Amino acid sequence: MVSTTKRDTLRIALALAEARTAIGLKSEAFSLYGEVVDQLLTDARTSEALAYVDEMIVLDPHDPAGHLKKAECHARLGDIDATVASAGRAVPLFLERGESDMALELLERMLSYWPDPACALAAARIHLDRGGPRDGLAALQKLHTCFKAKPEDLDTLVLLARAFDAMDQPDKADRVLEEAAGVAESRGDHDTAQRLVELLLSRDPQSQRARELSAKLHRRRTEAEAGAADRAHGDPGLLSLEDEITDALMRRPSEPAAESVASPVRSPSPRASSPLPRPS
User: Fold this and answer.
1) What are the Cα distances from residue 111, in Å, to 3, 107, 117, 167, 173?
2) Which of 10, 74, 206, 272 could bond 79 through an S-S bridge, CB–CB 3.0 to 4.6 Å?
3) What is this structure's pTM?
């Protein structure tokens, strides 16, 4: 049962939030609604809290705090799809603010709910952009999931090459780039294929595969061919990459993956006080 004092406190906070909203003091109103939501969640009144979270998001849709609180509400209500969707809206907002560690930790938490390849790809990209001593391995672990889901995805292949480079395995990076160039060429994406071939030749001027692809692209340009036949999904080159990824992961069993930041998810500002809880 909620005490009279708590009811009065909530009533006053709501009245103040509405008054601040009416006179255009959105930041103050946002913070007051946040306090209301926190109190309602403490009192296990999650459905009521969710309504006031929506008020926060209307006041400032670009503040990740509102989306985090909404994700927490959905998590408490057991709606995993809505939890991941709300948390996902906060990720680009953290990145826009330059808070990549917060974005990465949130993606890690989302992956604990739902091993989505898109989330794994975004997390891998942050690891590689951060470039810490263990980020290459952490990125490779996430990209393994992406590769198994879509072995011909060019974004995944290019990030795989970056991960192998970060792990000081340039030969494997070249192998991946060769496959990526072949995939792009087979799809008729000749500009991307050409850029990848040029990158390969700058890394290894003696690359036979890159020379062959370069010659093939040149013939297509001069002959003005309409495109190439689709590459078979069971391509042995792509299948062998799976073995190389697995081998690279298994060779480092004692090396822990890079961590984002300490759990639970911390507030980027006093206004973002609600963590996204781990699934029970």
Assistant:
1) 39, 6, 9, 23, 26
2) 74
3) 0.73
